[in-house]
Amino acid sequence: MSTSVPPSEWHSAGELVNSYGRGTESDACLGPMAVVTGVGFALLYLRTGSLLALIGLHITVDIVGLVLIPPPGRVNEPTPAEAS
């Protein structure tokens, strides 16, 4: 299988978001959106017992983990604006 990007240059979604979107308005709204979505799926699961709602809650938690929690090594790294 051939790819245009060699595996040595692959990045996780969290790395890409943290390198390109740190401190932007879109990052600021990710937390509240994730909380609302997670609570919605949890309430739907509790009310209906639907396996689909439980899967949605699990996916929401995974996305929060990828996007909002920075990968190792990038925690205290300053942005270019902070470094100057």
Largest sheet, in brief, is: none
Distance N to C terminus: 43 Å
Q: Give the helix level as a range of percent.
A: 55-70%
Total number of domains: 1
Task: Kindly report the oligomeric state of this protein.
Answer: single chain
Poorly predicted ranges: none
Radius of gyration from CA coordinates:
17 Å
Please provide the count of β strands.
Answer: 0
Mean pLDDT: 68
Order of helices and strands: HHHH
Basic shape: elongated
- Protein structure class: mainly alpha
- Summed up, the helix count is 4
User: Strand fraction band?
Assistant: under 5%
Protein model, in words:
- The chain has 84 residues and is mainly alpha-helical.
- The chain has one domain (12-71).
- It has four helices and no strands.
- The protein has helices at 13-20, 25-48, 51-67, 80-83.
- α2 packs antiparallel against α3.
- The mean pLDDT is 68.
- Keywords: Hydrolase, Membrane, Metalloprotease, Protease, Transmembrane, Transmembrane helix.
- This is CPBP family intramembrane metalloprotease.
- InterPro entries: Rce1/LyrA-like_dom.
Condensed summary:
The chain has 84 residues and is an all-alpha fold. It has one domain (12-71).
List the defining traits of the structure above.
single chain; 84 residues; 63% helix; 0% strand
